[in-house]
């Protein structure tokens, strides 16, 4: 049985992965984003299941070059399965704008592009906690 301290540490690690994914994706740090997955990790995105770092990274790099996006996520609800795995559900709102912007100019705000949930499976690896599986369920889309 896990101690309260161990449980808290697992939840904190999983929450940090969720936050890092959004920040890296929004800032265009796509290698760091893909590295949050296990080597054989899976990311279901727009109906396609991507498996492994190369496939995940290729899909992230295929984003439009002038895409400006921000993922606003609630803290994930983490359910610990055992000492080495946990599940999480994160509600997200994504704002998007495609097009050139003058330096220092914010993108126009037209409302959320989508609202939904990330369903994650986290696993402990020798290199720390990673995403083994991330699926996306969109509830609302513009």
Based on CA inertia axes, which overall geometry fits?
A: globular
Overall number of strands:
7
- Most strands sheet: 7 strands, mixed
Kindly estimate the percentage of residues that lie in beta strands according to DSSP.
Answer: over 45%
CATH topology: Nuclear Transport Factor 2, Chain: A
Number of helices: 3
Given the helix and strand composition, which structural class is it? alpha+beta
Overall mean pLDDT score? 97
User: What is the CATH level 1 assignment?
Assistant: Alpha Beta
- How many domains comprise the coordinates? 1
Uncertain segments are none
The second-level CATH architecture is: Roll
Overview of the structural elements:
This protein has 142 residues and is of the alpha+beta class. The chain has a single domain, classed as Nuclear Transport Factor 2, Chain: A (Roll), CATH 3.10.450.50. 27% of the residues lie in helices and 46% in strands. The chain has 3 helices and 7 strands, in the order H-H-E-E-H-E-E-E-E-E. It has helices at residues 4-27, 30-34, 53-61, and strands at residues 37-45, 48-51, 67-73, 77-82, 85-98, 114-125, 128-141. A hairpin with a 2-residue loop joins strand 1 and strand 2 (48-51). It is globular and about 55 Å long. The model has no long low-confidence stretch (mean pLDDT 97).
